[in-house]
Amino acid sequence: MTNPLIGVRVTTATLREVARMEAAAEIARQRARALGRPVLVSVTTRVGLRDPLALFARGAGVTHNRFFWSTPAADVELTGLGAAWSFTPAPSGNRFAASAAAWRQLVSEAVIDVDPNLPVPGPLAVAGFRFDPDQPPSELWRDYPLGLLVVPRLLIVRHGDVTTLTVSGMVDERSSTLALGAAAARRLQALIGLPFRPQRLPTDVQVDVSLDPEEWKAIVADAITDLRAGRLEKVVLARAVRLRSSEPFDTAATLDMLRKHYPHTFVFAVARGGRTFLGASPERLVALRNGAVTASALAGSAPRGKTPEADHAFAEALLQSTKDRTEHAFVVQMICSALTEYCDQVCAPESPTVMQVRNVQHLFTPITAHIRPGYDIFDLVGRLHPTPAVGGKPGPAALAWIRERERLDRGWYAAPVGWVDARGDGEFAVALRSALIGRHEATLFAGCGIVAASEPERELTETRIKLRAMLEALGASEEMIG
User: Fold this and answer.
1) Catalytic residue chosen out of the listed positions 17, 22, 77, 234
2) Could you tell me which of 131, 219, 220, 209 has the C-alpha nearest to residue 443?
3) Which of 94, 113, 388, 421 sits most deeply, having the most CB atoms within 10 A of its CB?
4) What is the pLDDT of residue 11?
């Protein structure tokens, strides 16, 4: 059967979903008339098993607003395309509280049609924030504001062997309900059924170290001087590396490599205005599900060994390192203290374990809690960011030091990125092991925690190790950088 309003062949099931969208949009139109403002309408349905990354890849020619999230170890992936609704907080005020208020109002008025037995409860908002709201943004980060919430127009989520499609749009009293269903059917027909075939990585990548390694080590030495003088307890310093290629970078191929090689990380991408900020972060900032809170303390690093024996030796040395254990304890203490403000039953093991990813291993402590009524994930994100693992201690003094001395606009690097659902549950990672990628250029970021016992050469080596994941995923190598 061909629907003349849509112009493509559709099945009876598709027509049934279009009817659901029309009915929901009609309710939303009446609600919008009563409220005097547009209302979100969102319809979720189960579809055949799909690869969300295929939708992300194919969506490049359709919209500049794309989002990808993957936690391979949990067998969860999602992709969002377009922007049914978006929100950017004002420069003044609490950006996390403003985001929470905007999201709560939107979903409280929304018309959401979803089977409660499905693992995804309707629409999600993609969310990301700048690392430092007080640092003026550079041209590099022009498409990534102080804070951003986006409800994708089209969202596909795969949770194990269940895949769902959510279509969302804003409806006012004059909106056509047929237009919503027609647009969804067109996107479903044109995008979701196409296979994903990643392109090969560029072969002519050139590297430009934006800050000479000797200059960066001098900044580290200055930090160590201030630390030993007692002006700080810890400060985290980052550096950037730029890549150029005559061949275009394929961000979907990069994401495919990251999800295969780094299964115990949070693989993410936020595409805006022709650029994509993506990465494979080993660090969860916070997750909230049905009142249960999970956070991660990740600080203290060592390389991976080339043999099992060497790998084990590096791990044992890390566990015995006074410098790394002290740095890690700062982070655990801060996270537990922050969570106590909004949560009960805050719990952390007495000693860390070692988390191993493909190129590096870290001291790791999982932290759990239970959120009190009246609070949400934005309260937790705002209270936790920045942890001492990405900022320092004391926090305000460390941020001021970074702002004045680091000589880098971090943008969204080392900041919260993630998603929130209609129930207020969600998950945010710390945007580490990441890069901001354009068509022919990419800027990669890596940092390390500096304490009084740090050594500049060792910290430079640590940044090289941490850059390895993104370098390899973009067709370059660690040997190409200083």
Assistant:
1) 234
2) 209
3) 388
4) 47
CA distance 50 to 17: 18
Question: Residue 459 to residues 218, 258, 347, 359, 463: CA-CA distances in angstroms?
Answer: 11, 24, 31, 16, 6
3-class secondary-structure state, position 360: strand
Site of tokens 């509280």: 97
- Cβ atoms of 2 and 182 within 8 Å: the answer is no
Map residue 144 onto helix, strand or coil. Answer: coil
Among 115, 113, 120, 128, which Cα is nearest to 40's?
113
Active-site residue among 22, 283, 427, 462? Answer: 283
Tell me the CA distances in angstroms from 308 to 232, 305, 313, 461, one per residue in order: 38, 7, 9, 21
What tens digit of pLDDT does each residue of 14-43 get?
556 677 878 888 899 899 999 999 999 998
Torsion angle, CA of 59/251/128/394, rounded to 10 degrees?
180
pLDDT at 118: 80
234: annotated active-site residue: yes
CB atoms within 10 A of CB 11: 9
Domains parsed from the chain with CATH numbers: 12-192 (no CATH), 206-480 (3.60.120.10)
Q: Which of 460, 440, 346, 330 is nearest to 395 (CA)?
A: 330
Beta strand residue intervals within 318-440, DSSP E: 343-347, 353-356, 360-371, 392-393, 416-421, 426-430, 434-437
Query: Token pair 């049934």 is at which residue?
Result: 16
Structure token pair of residue 269: 């991408």
Nearest to 460 by CA among 244, 211, 207, 230: 211
Which amino acid, residue 48?
G
Half-sphere exposure of 374 (CA within 13 A, CB side): 5
Residue 258's H or E segment, with its range, is helix 251-261
How far apart (Å, rounded) are the C-alpha atoms in residues 168 and 180? 8
Would the pTM of this model clear 0.85, i.e. be above it?
yes
Task: Note the Cα 348 to chain centre separation in Å.
Answer: 24
